[in-house]
Amino acid sequence: MGIVKISDEKDFENQVINTEGRVMVDFYADWCGPCKMMSEVIEKVAVEKPELKVCKINIDDNRDVASKYDVMSIPTVMVFQNGTQVSKSIGSKTKARLIQELGI
């Protein structure tokens, strides 16, 4: 499936909230060094877990969505199950640690 880039609040609702199953969302910014490091981890998780929908949303372009989900630091990665947030990880992590923290 690859990684879906979310462009706005409506897109977030369609791609994450209205999706059945699990969706992992990476909240990031282009200028964020740790976010760039996590990008490789996110890509590996997307490949290794094809049953998991993986999305990325740039917080600079989507401040309302970031605020709604209390994203205070980046990178922040969340997992949603049937539209409800079920887990959250903040900061740069190894793939194993991210999988453990998010329960995926």
Task: Provide tags for this entry.
alpha/beta, 5-stranded mixed β-sheet, 4 helices, 38% helix, globular
Draw up the topology in text.
Elements: E1 3-6, H1 9-17, E2 22-28, H2 33-48, E3 53-58, H3 63-68, E4 76-81, E5 84-90, H4 95-102
Parallel strand pairs: 1-3, 2-3
Antiparallel strand pairs: 2-4, 4-5
Describe this structure in a few short sentences.
This protein is an alpha/beta fold. It has four helices and five strands; from the N terminus they run E-H-E-H-E-H-E-E-H.
Structural account:
α2 links the parallel β2 and β3 (53-58). The protein is α/β, with parallel strands linked by helices and 104 residues long. The protein is built from four helices and five strands; from the N terminus they run βαβαβαββα. Strands 1-3-2-4-5 form a five-stranded mixed β-sheet, sandwiched between helices.
Helices and strands: which structural class? alpha/beta
The average pLDDT score comes to 94
Cross-sheet strand order for the largest sheet: 1-3-2-4-5
Give, in order, the helices and strands. Answer: EHEHEHEEH
Beta strands, count? 5
How many H/I helices?
Answer: 4
- Main beta sheet: strand number and arrangement? 5 strands, mixed
Rg, rounded, reads 12 Å
Low-confidence stretches: none
Oligomer: single chain
Amount of helix: 25-40%
